[in-house]
Design a protein that fits this description.
268 residues; two-stranded antiparallel sheet; TIM Barrel; 9 helices; single chain; alpha/beta
């Protein structure tokens, strides 16, 4: 298999391609991608947070192979939660990850704006949306202020609710966007509208297939017209620092997806 693919931006995937810890995954990917999404977890039952030695090794690998890292902040951090104590706990979780990774060359911190586990923001009234926005604004402002990173390094992801719910806060705070193409497809939102509206503020795209209602699978399961649209817009934008992350979690899906791009390149 060839090394990094010709691409209109930085090409990446996740730190969970091999069924192993982060360092072996980065070793495996170091000559195949430009950016690696570090998916970090910390709980009472399990933690994969890198040790100081791991951070030093990640820095060395980045320097040797011109890598950057997109750091996904914890999935169980509910920055838009209605309860203030829960928001404070969530900000502290994110702060620990930011502090841990501050020495790494980063493309972005990927942020989920969520109101709580199981809270559905897809069909809610304006007052609920407004409360969610106020809660997230408070948390995000605190997180940004506590970090040396710029507000634009924090890229808020498109999830299962209309991004218009959170965009006013993202825009006002000077944050960036993570467009998750797979999420848009899975939940029935227009990929074209999202790209046309938000690409200029987007640092990261998460791209993955959807099969039988399940996302985060090989890009071979993403409609070809959607992938064509994404690639055309990236080519047109000319932003070589933007990151295209194949957000998949197995070697089989990774190799399948890379083969898809190899075939596209040969046809071009």
């Amino acid at each position: 298999m060839s090394s990094r693919l010709p691409f209109p931006c930085r090409f990446g995937t996740t730190s969970y391609i091999k069924p192993d810890e982060i360092i072996p995954n980065v070793e495996y990917l170091k000559d195949r991608v430009d950016d690696i999404e570090l998916v970090l977890f910390e709980s009472d039952e399990f933690s994969n947070l890198p040790s100081p030695d791991d951070i030093r090794r990640l820095s060395e690998l980045a320097a040797e192979h011109e890598l950057t890292y997109s750091v996904h902040l914890p999935l169980d951090a509910y920055l838009g939660h209605a309860d203030r104590d829960e928001r404070e706990r969530s900000v502290e979780k994110c702060q620990r990850i930011v502090e841990l990774t501050e020495s790494l060359p980063r493309s972005a911190y990927v942020v989920h704006a969520e109101a709580g586990k199981g809270v559905d923001l897809r069909d809610c009234d304006a007052s609920k949306v407004s409360r969610f926005q106020d809660a997230f604004r408070s948390s995000a402002a605190r997180l940004i202020a506590s970090s040396d990173a710029s507000a634009s390094e924090f890229a808020v992801e498109t999830l299962n609710y209309p991004y218009e719910h959170i965009w006013p806060v993202v825009d006002a705070l000077g944050m960036s966007v993570t467009i998750d193409i797979g999420h848009l497809v899975l939940f029935g939102y227009s990929v074209e509208e999202a790209i046309d509206r938000y690409l200029s503020r987007t640092r990261v795209l998460h791209v993955h297939g959807v099969l039988d209602g399940r996302d985060h699978v090989s890009l071979c399961h993403l409609d070809a017209s959607v992938l064509d649209l994404v690639m055309e817009r990236l080519q047109r934008s000319g932003d070589m620092d933007r990151v295209f992350t194949m957000e998949i979690f197995s070697e089989e899906d990774f190799l399948d997806s890379c083969s898809l791009f190899e075939r596209r390149r040969r046809r071009a």
